[in-house]
Amino acid sequence: MNLPSGTVIGVIGGGQLGKMLIEASRPWNTPYIVLENDLDCPASQVAASVLLGKLTDGDKIAELAAQCDVLTYEIEHINSDALLALEHSGKRIIPSAKALKIIQDKGLQKSFYAKHGIATAPFVLCDNQEALKASMDQFSGERVVIKQRTGGYDGKGVDIVSKAAVLSGDYQTPGPCVVEQFYRNITEYAVIVAADQHGHVLSYPLIEMYFNPKSNLVEFLFSPAETSPTLEENCREIAIKAVAAIGSPGLFAVELFVTENAEVLVNEIAPRPHNSGHHTIEGSYTSQFEQLNRILLGLPLGDTGMVQPAAMVNLVGAAGQFGSYSLPATRELLSMPGVYVHLYNKKEIKPDRKMGHITVLAPNMDELLEKARKVQALAVFETH
To answer: Which of 79, 190, 333, 372 is most buried, most CB within 10 Å of its CB?
Structure first.
C-alpha cells in the first residue's frame, strides 16, 4: 500500500485536539483544513488553512467538505445533521455522522447501551422537573448523578446532587436530562479503541484516571493501570464491544466505572482523541493522534504498545485566574528526564480551561508515580 499523499483532511474544530492531530501528521505531510470561529485558534499554526465559521453552520461545513477528501471532528457539539446529509451524498466522515448523533445526546447514548446489552449505570430519562422528582424512588442511596442530555463538556452539565434537593425543588434541571445511579468509591478508567476502515480493531492498555471533585475534569492519569489482568481484560472487552456496536471507523475513548464489587460499567464514549489518551504521544509506539491519522488515510493501525509506563498531568486554569499567564516552573520541568511539556497556545487563561498537559515517563510504576506527583506540584500557572 502506498501512502495516500495528497489526501486533504478537514477537521471541524481547531482547538488543542485539532492542533495535536495535525502535528502527528507531519511525517507524512498531510494537508489539513480546519473549520473554526477563531483564526488564531490553537490549530491555526499547523493547519494548511483555517476556514472561518461556526461549527454549527451547515453551509460552512459543506464548504469545508468541498475542499477535503475526508472529514473528522475534534468536538461533539457540531451540526451532525449537516454531516448526515454529506455522508448520504458520499462524503467520507470518520467517525460516522450516525455515530455522532448517538453520542451527542447522552440520553440516546445511554439507551443505545441498554439496547445492545452494554453494561452501564441504571438510568432514567427525564424531560422536566416533575419527571425528575418522580424518578428519585428508582435509585438507591441519598444521591444521584444528573447529566444534561446535550451541550455538556469538560465536566460541565454533570451534577451530583442529593435526592432531597431534587424533591424539595432546590435543584432545578435546566432541561432534559439523564438521571443515573450514584456509586460510592468507584475507580474511573478509560480504554482508547481504534477501529480502521477495514474492520480491524486495536485497544491501548487500560488507563487509570483521577478527577477534580469540583470541576469533574481529569487531573491526573497513568497507564498501565494498577489492577488485575482479569479486570483489565474485562474493561478492554466491554470497551471493544461498545465500539463494535457503534459500527464506525474512528478513534474512541471509552470511559468506564468500576464499582466496589468489580462491576465494569460504560460511562460515556468520546468519538475522538481524548484527554485520557494524551500520554500516548510519548508513552506509546503509536500516539492516539497518529492512530487517527492512520484511520483517516486508510492505513494499517499502529502498534498500541507502551514504550514505558506513562502518566499525564492536566494543566488547567485555577479559580480566579484570568488573562495573560506563564508557567514559571517550565525550565525546571524540562530539566527532568522523561518529562514533556505541552502548551496549547491559548491566549488567555480562565478557571478550569485546559491550557496544556505534561507527559511523564519512567521505567517502573513506583518511579513514575513519584515523578508525576513532583510534576503536579510544580505545574502551576501564574497570571500577570
So the answer is: 190
